[in-house]
């Protein structure tokens, strides 16, 4: 991003410098001169600088034809840059530095006006064109007061290139000056404007050259490689995250399904002890209930004997006994011994560790496959350009 900042800084810097040079020759001063300078700066920095950098990259190509074409293009762009900035310097000279001319200012290019072609009627130019009134109206007439006043100024245009007093005529005048003498500049500021423009072209070309790979086409491939590598890295992270979740879930289920025989035996012994205590309590409740039932039956029989007149039944002479089908006490003889439980626990832990090891091996193998599939080989011909 800092390369773009340098390019913008070059445009701003050249616009300010050229604005100072143009500001002395236009009516609006530096502000109006800067408006001319912005377009010139954009052409020098954005267009000519980019073309120079592109031609220099072609010189680095391995193909001799591309190198020769790059050298030819570089020479052509250099020539265009030089002539463009020469034209800009001529355009500055074509702008009247005293625009608009004051009514009492000496006219510019009097001889051009005097030698202008006659009208269709063949009449010479009207004397009113050389009068103060005609001069105030915008005509370029000489001041007849002194011979020196009739001489064009030092920085005035040649007689053959004078087109008019307006700034709108400066482009035609600059083109005429450029055709007449491309390298004939008339002042120090014009040469400085030329040097500043060429220097900005060179600086912009160096910055444009550094924004991409020196070899033509490699910058695009490198950016594509980086984007592909970033996309593959993101896919790799997502796949590895999913694999880690699967591995953790499978390991969690293995540990949850594992039951240690030693701990299971201890839990079973604890449950047997509780069950035996409840069975003992139940038998006690059954004996108490049998006693209560026998006592109630005796009370009933005694009361019945006293109240009845007939002999009592023979069954009453046999004592009542509770004939209940009570459950057997819990038997813990089927539990494995402590030694057997420890041996079984050792074997089961070995099996659990083996399954966890195989799970880790499968997870590592899958991770290696993901890394291999998502690794970008810079020498792979299948990678698109």
Spell out the key features of this protein.
mainly alpha; 3 domains; 385 residues; disordered C terminus; rod-shaped
Using the CA coordinates, give the radius of gyration.
Answer: 56 Å
Taking pLDDT < 50 over at least 5 consecutive residues as the criterion, the unreliable ranges are 98-157, 381-385
Q: Averaged pLDDT, please?
A: 77
Q: Helix-strand pattern, N to C?
A: HHHHHHHHHH
Structural class: mainly alpha
Describe the sheet with the most strands. Answer: none
Helix content: 55-70%
Oligomer: single chain
Strand content: under 5%
| Number of self-contained structural domains | 3
Shape: rod-shaped
Number of strands: 0
Amino-to-carboxy terminus distance: 23 Å
Provide an overview of this structure:
This protein is an all-alpha fold and 385 residues long. It has 3 domains: 2-99 and 166-216, no CATH class; 110-161, no CATH class; 223-373, no CATH class. It has helices at residues 2-23, 30-59, 64-94, 110-114, 132-136, 170-180, 188-210, 218-257, 261-307, 338-373. α2 packs antiparallel against α3 (64-94), α3 crosses α6 (170-180) and α8 (218-257) packs antiparallel against α10. The radius of gyration is 56 Å and the shape is rod-shaped. It starts with a helix and ends in a 12-residue tail after the last helix. The model is unreliable at 98-157 and 381-385 (pLDDT under 50).
